[in-house]
Write a structure and sequence with these properties.
This protein has about 325 residues and is mainly beta. The protein has helices at about 5-20, 155-165, 165-170; strands at about 30-35, 40-45, 50-55, 60-65, 65-70, 85-90, 95-100, 110-115, 120-125, 135-140, 145, 180-190, 195-205, 210-220, 225, 230-235, 250, 255, 260, 265-275, 290-295. The chain starts with 5 loop residues before the first helix and ends in a 30-residue tail after the last strand. Helix content is about 10%, strand content about 40%. It is elongated and about 75 Å long. The chain has two domains: about 5-140, no CATH class; about 145-320, Sandwich (Immunoglobulin-like), CATH 2.60.40. The protein has a six-stranded mixed β-sheet, with no helix packed on it. The chain has a six-stranded antiparallel β-sheet with strand order 11-18-20-14-13-12. It is built from three helices and 21 strands.
Length: about 325
């Protein structure tokens, strides 16, 4: 089959979608924040439709081993019997969008996207049943760094980045994890209309920094806004001292949106470093009991719990972190 002009290609694909009685796949649209350290798995349309990639600005270049690149307005050869080609990708010079289609069920390749001086890796594979039809890439907001006298902002961002990449580092670069302790958790802190689950805690011993990965579950039908710059951790002592309040640690670096959409579970990353007086905190993610404090921007007089909200298993805050 010959691929015609770019517009004709899209028109035929749209007609196929509308003519097919099967429902659209659940993964019709996905949105990703761009991170050059992260691999993106993209299931590409095979028998119907195309997978459209949308970037925040026009890519400078593409590179791949088994993809035939066709400029919009040009006629592409028939690659269906070419064992060297697994995908055909239609591009338009200076455009932020491009479309790609798999030619065979076993098609797979890595697409390198050169964007804003960085290279992003897209791992493509054919999927006839559940392709992603639209993939939108966005620049991620820079983490908010709170001034600290003991560790530089760049060092804090490095700790946060390595915590996010922990699964890949553990598999391929275990030597990069020296001095890092990782503890999984299911500890939950209940607020009136949302819940906070501590999912993971990392300790970077040399930087005396703990990185927290938490999940925020909005149980209501309304959007909840919170003050991301005010996120903090309260640490319960091993032996409670009723004469002294539990130690409080303000976040030193934060990667959070500040918004919980209705009936949603959103991810937040942040870290705490040292102590208020500039000393070492020496906190242990496996032994200390942490409570995440999320201050709201406003607190409504009433709220309704969403009946369909996905529940995070509750735990008693006194139980500490479960491993």
């Amino acid at each position: 089959m010959k691929f015609l002009l770019y517009t004709a290609f899209l028109a035929v694909s749209a007609t196929q979608l509308l003519a097919d009685d099967a429902p659209l796949p659940s993964s019709f649209l996905r949105s990703f924040s761009l991170d050059e350290r992260r691999p993106y798995q993209i299931p590409v349309a095979l028998h119907r439709g195309v997978t459209t990639l949308i970037f925040p600005e026009a890519p400078e270049n593409f590179a791949a081993a088994r993809i035939a690149f066709v400029e919009a307005g040009q006629t592409a050869p028939d690659y269906s019997n070419d064992d060297r080609i697994d995908f055909v990708m239609l591009t338009h010079r200076g455009s932020t969008t491009c479309s790609i289609r798999a030619l065979k069920p076993e098609a797979q390749d890595t697409l390198s996207v050169f964007l804003n001086g960085k290279v992003y890796q897209l791992f493509l594979h054919a999927d006839a049943d559940q392709p992603i039809l639209t993939v939108e890439f966005k620049y991620r907001p820079m983490p908010e760094v709170v001034s600290t006298s003991t560790v530089s902002p760049n060092r804090l961002i490095d700790c946060l980045t390595r915590a996010k990449a922990y699964p890949l580092l553990a598999k391929y670069y275990p030597d990069q994890l020296d001095g890092i302790t990782h503890v999984a958790s299911n500890r939950v802190i209940n607020y009136p209309d949302f819940r906070v689950q501590i999912s993971e805690v990392f300790r970077f011993d040399e930087a005396d920094t703990l990185v927290f990965h938490v999940l925020l579950q909005n149980q209501t039908e309304q959007e909840i806004r919170y003050q991301r710059a005010e996120i903090s951790i309260r640490v319960e002592p091993q032996t409670p001292d009723l004469d002294q309040p539990p130690p409080l640690y303000r976040a030193s670096v934060i990667d959070a949106s500040g918004v919980m959409p209705p009936k949603s579970i959103t991810s937040v990353w942040f870290a705490i470093t040292g102590t208020r007086t500039g000393g070492r905190n020496e906190l242990d993610p496996a032994r200390n009991i942490f409570t995440v404090l999320i201050p709201r921007t406003t607190f409504p007089p009433s709220f309704a719990i969403a009946s369909g909200a996905k529940k995070i298993p509750a735990s008693d805050p006194k139980d500490g972190i479960r491993r």
